[in-house]
């Protein structure tokens, strides 16, 4: 049965992902006119943000501290732009990823396989909720800092005001949402392959008292072919995820390291919370790429050892 829009949209485990992608116009099933409006709006925000920062560079005094402060904003913005345009340019690949996930949900009829799938889908949903909460915490830090400066300015303790708008991490995390739930789906499929193999050998051990004449060789052959095909589709899905992110993951990790080094050079009391949130976010990006990549390798090795 072919996949339909409602099949995937109504899946309770990916509701938050769907809403976030729709918010920035990257949900493949929404109408083209609405998608165009969302994409144009986000591009307008990015262009205004970049223009403002470039203008600030040319108009500012030639001081190292000012350049450092501008880089604190420009580098995350570059990460935002690279992630967002990676999503737009690879829309066809993203659509294949969504279709593959929906196809697996429709094809897995075994109750035990669906339980494995639902457990990891629940974990993916928790990761999405954690990212949403972290964004609001980040926004709170960023908003609190300039408001604290305004209060201090009104009280006369400082002679300047500063306002930083919390726009960067909101769009930055959308790229990683695709990565996280796509990664978990890869792990689910690999675990199901391992379960299929183990269950088959358990059945054979339980039926070992039967005569060899009763063994259905055609059924065994069909099972082997099914496992190989299933494993092949999982590898193809892994290749899709790799193709989707190979252009930006190294850039993001590099920018994260540079941001950490810049932020460590100059930290004031009023900016401490904001810079701390940038450091934590940057470290999370680096950790996620290495941890999830290693996790996927471990699952693949377990399947190889089981076979």
From TrEMBL:
Q: What is this protein called?
A: Odorant receptor 46a-like isoform X1
Q: How does it sit in the membrane?
A: Multi-pass membrane protein
Q: Does the keyword Calcium apply?
A: no
Q: Does the keyword Membrane apply?
A: yes
Report the domain of life of the source organism: Eukaryota
The UniProt entry's GO biological process terms, in alphabetical order, are: sensory perception of smell; signal transduction
Q: Where in the cell is it found?
A: Cell membrane
**InterPro entries membership:** 7tm6_olfct_rcpt
Keyword annotations: Cell membrane, Membrane, Olfaction, Receptor, Sensory transduction, Transducer, Transmembrane, Transmembrane helix
Identify one Gene Ontology CC term for this UniProt entry. plasma membrane
For this protein, the parts annotated as crossing the membrane are 36-58, 70-88, 135-155, 177-195, 250-267, 273-292
């Amino acid at each position: 049965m072919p996949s339909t829009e409602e099949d995937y949209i109504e899946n309770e485990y990916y509701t938050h992902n769907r809403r976030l992608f729709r918010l920035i116009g990257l949900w493949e099933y929404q109408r083209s006119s609405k998608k165009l409006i969302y994409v144009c709006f986000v591009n307008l925000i990015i262009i205004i943000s970049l223009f403002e920062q470039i203008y600030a560079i040319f108009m500012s005094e030639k001081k190292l501290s000012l350049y450092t402060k501008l880089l604190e904003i420009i580098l995350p913005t570059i990460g935002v732009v690279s992630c967002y345009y990676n999503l737009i340019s690879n829309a066809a690949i993203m659509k294949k990823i969504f279709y593959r996930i929906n196809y697996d949900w429709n094809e897995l009829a075994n109750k035990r396989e669906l339980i494995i799938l639902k457990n990891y889908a629940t974990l993916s949903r928790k990761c999405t909720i954690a990212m949403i909460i972290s964004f609001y915490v980040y926004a709170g830090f960023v908003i609190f800092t300039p408001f604290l400066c305004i209060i201090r300015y009104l009280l006369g303790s400082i002679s300047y005001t500063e306002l930083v708008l919390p726009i960067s991490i909101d769009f930055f995390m959308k790229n990683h949402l695709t990565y996280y739930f796509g990664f978990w789906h890869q792990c689910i499929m690999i675990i199901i392959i391992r379960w299929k193999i183990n269950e088959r050998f358990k059945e054979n051990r339980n039926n070992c008292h039967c005569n060899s004449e009763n063994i259905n060789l055609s059924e065994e052959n069909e099972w082997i072919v099914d496992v190989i095909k299933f494993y092949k589709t999982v590898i193809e899905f892994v290749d899709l995820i790799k193709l989707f992110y190979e252009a930006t993951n190294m850039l993001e990790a590099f920018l994260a390291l540079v941001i950490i080094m810049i932020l460590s050079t100059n930290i004031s009391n009023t900016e401490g919370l904001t810079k701390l949130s940038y450091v934590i976010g940057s470290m999370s990006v680096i950790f996620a790429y290495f941890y999830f990549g290693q996790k996927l390798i471990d699952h693949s090795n377990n399947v190889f050892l089981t076979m």
